[in-house]
Write a structure and sequence with these properties.
By secondary structure, the chain is mainly alpha-helical. Among the domains are: 114 residues, Rossmann fold (3-Layer(aba) Sandwich); 99 residues, Glutamyl-tRNA Synthetase, Domain 3 (Glutamyl-tRNA Synthetase, domain 3); 104 residues, Orthogonal Bundle (Arc Repressor Mutant, subunit A), CATH 1.10.10.350. It is built from 21 helices and eleven strands. The protein binds glutamic acid.
Length: 483
């Protein structure tokens, strides 16, 4: 058995959709599990859909998630070029050979003529097979070509019989050849279609396992016919289930939030995205959910692939990202978090390491950091109604009494560590005969001007230090006295 060779064959048409990333990941795992090769091929034959910068986005994404390719446009390899637009001459050569072998024919119909034949086929509920051009003799063809008539190359699908293959995930797939359309293989602009290029390239690049989205499941019999017409071995096919946004909706680029870049730029960690994406269509067979790329290589198997659509759950991805953030070494988190600290926070006198220690366990997505810490550099102007909190059993009167007492307690503390502050405020609550929250909550609001904060009253006190903490408490007292 030849060494496993898989390929990731994205079209550079925009950002990397998470479904495409998953295909790339599974192809990588399939190769690496077996000590094989993972190849990157850029499928840019649909020139109208190309997007500037999309190839770079592919390299960037693969690099960020650690899917290193063994062969590809940038690293070279023995079966290049690895960009389809640089292989046109190869497709032309193989198209001629396929015509000679009876697997294809030249079609000289104008778009209008083709459309008329298609309409007739639809009317009779027949697939489209271009009877006129199929019947042209080699001489007819030569003459038309010599006279400069534009043409395309179409697949000559058989009129009878069946074509089948066994998909690893979806099982035995068989179609009646009479049902197949004669699709275009080579366009009049000289570019191949996917229908042709994928077969020629997968064969020439010695791909052993073709992994791609289930949307190709039903056209694969046509590709099998091309392999057979050339007398080539058909690779193993592994079609992957669609990823849905909900029970009824497909996850598409139009949803905006479906690309790697969207999540990456929002402060999701590449490893978390990759881990989550790995579970969209594959299950390890136990309860484990957290996998490094290396662990995925060790655990991945075709047996865990599912054919039912998987549902993309952004809430789960967010949760998983938070877990990945918590598992980061503190220094690493601090380095990442600093990039999200607004300038006024980076320049204010608080200890940023201490701030990061508070944030490390309380951050699910890095981009949420700025709004969580917006109170650090400057106390926002807030409504004293914030002191009224049902669950904390506080209102403005209780808050005013607590803040005035807390001011005295905190002012006389000799050490301002959070443990000392906490003990002192707890003792104060007992002394006042109120619940802890009736002291802690008002102090926390006074320090932050917010209902939700990273860390409680004592942690924020330590972060700000005595002078700033007392100053903020004074602002609170003043607001409440006027209320
Ligand atoms: N270029 C195709 C796409 O992006 C690749 C399909 C395949 O992997 O063969 O959908």
């Amino acid at each position: 058995m030849a060494a496993v060779r898989t390929r990731y064959a994205p079209s550079p048409t925009g950002y990397m959709h998470l479904g495409n990333l998953r295909t790339g990941l599974y192809a990588y795992l399939t190769a690496k599990k077996d000590g094989g090769q993972f190849i990157l091929r850029i499928e840019d034959t649909d020139q109208g859909r190309l997007q500037e910068g999309a190839v770079q986005a592919i390299y960037d994404t693969l690099g960020r998630v650690g899917l290193r390719h063994d062969e590809g446009p940038d690293v070279g390899g023995p079966y290049g070029p690895y960009v389809q637009s640089e292989r046109l001459e190869i497709y032309h050569r193989y198209a001629e050979e396929l015509i000679e072998r009876g697997g294809a024919y030249r079609c000289f119909c104008t778009p209008e003529e083709t459309e008329a034949q298609r309409a007739a086929a639809r009317l009779h509920k027949r697939p489209f097979k271009d009877e006129r051009c199929r019947a042209l003799t080699p001489d007819d063809v030569a003459q038309r070509l010599a006279s400069g008539m534009p043409s395309v190359v179409r697949q000559r699908t058989p009129l009878t019989g069946t074509t089948s293959y066994d998909d690893v995930v979806f099982g035995h797939i068989a179609v009646d050849n009479a049902e197949l359309d004669d699709s275009v293989l080579l366009k009049s602009d000289g570019f191949p279609t996917y229908n042709f290029a994928n077969v020629v390239d997968d064969h020439l690049m010695r791909i052993t396992h073709v992994m791609r989205g289930a949307e190709y499941l039903s056209s694969t019999p046509k590709y099998v016919l091309i392999y057979e017409a050339f007398g080539w071995d058909v690779p193993v096919h592994v079609h992957l289930p669609v990823i849905n946004k909900s029970a009824t909706e497909k996850l598409s680029k139009r949803h905006g939030d479906a690309s790697f870049e969207d999540y990456y730029s929002k402060g999701y960690l590449p490893e978390a995205i990759l881990n989550y994406v790995a579970l969209l269509g594959w299950a390890p067979g136990n309860d484990e959910e957290f996998f490094t790329l290396e662990e995925l290589v060790g655990n991945f198997s075709f047996a865990g692939l599912s054919k039912s659509p998987s549902i993309f759950d952004p809430v789960k991805l967010r949760w998983m990202n938070g877990e990945y953030i918590r598992r980061l070494p503190f220094e690493e988190f601090h380095r990442l978090a600093l990039r999200w600290y607004p300038e006024n926070v980076r320049e204010c006198p608080v200890d940023l390491l201490a701030l990061s220690r508070l944030m490390h366990t309380r951050t699910a997505v890095l981009s949420e950091i700025p709004e969580q810490i917006d109170f650090v550099a400057a106390l926002p102007d807030y409504d004293p109604a914030l002191y009224t909190h049902k669950k904390m059993k506080t209102d403005t009167a209780i808050a005013l009494r607590s803040l005035e007492a807390a001011r005295g307690t905190l002012g006389s503390l000799t050490s301002f560590g959070h443990e000392e502050v906490h003990a002192a405020l707890e003792a104060l609550a007992a002394e006042l005969g109120v619940k802890n929250g009736q002291v802690m909550y008002p102090v926390r609001v006074a320090l932050s001007g917010k209902e939700f904060t990273p860390g409680g009253a004592s942690e924020l006190s330590e972060l700000f230090g005595r002078d700033e903490a007392l100053r903020r408490i004074d602002v609170g007292i003043e607001k409440l006295s006027g209320a």
